[in-house]
Design brief:
Layout: H1 3-27, E1 31-33, E2 36-38, H2 40-67
Antiparallel strand pairs: 1-2
Helix pairs in contact: 1-2
């Protein structure tokens, strides 16, 4: 897999994770793993981290096009 494809896949996965966190916050979905209920502040954190990583990855893709143009 090329570096550009890796960045694109990573950006899409982080974007999807951020969207899922946003949907959880908007719809007040509860999330439980076994007996542990995850608090909503975890989704705020996940949303911020997911958005930051996806923006970073898309920025690297844009930089890739500039630095690797013929």
């Amino acid at each position: 897999m090329s570096a550009k494809a890796y960045l694109l896949v990573s950006a899409l996965i982080f974007t999807l994770a951020a969207i899922l966190h946003l949907l959880r916050l908007m719809n007040h979905w509860s999330f439980q793993i076994g007996t542990i209920v995850l608090p909503f502040w975890g989704s705020w954190l996940g949303l911020a981290i997911g958005l930051a990583l996806s923006i970073w990855a898309f920025g690297l893709i844009a930089g890739w096009r500039i630095s690797h143009s013929p």
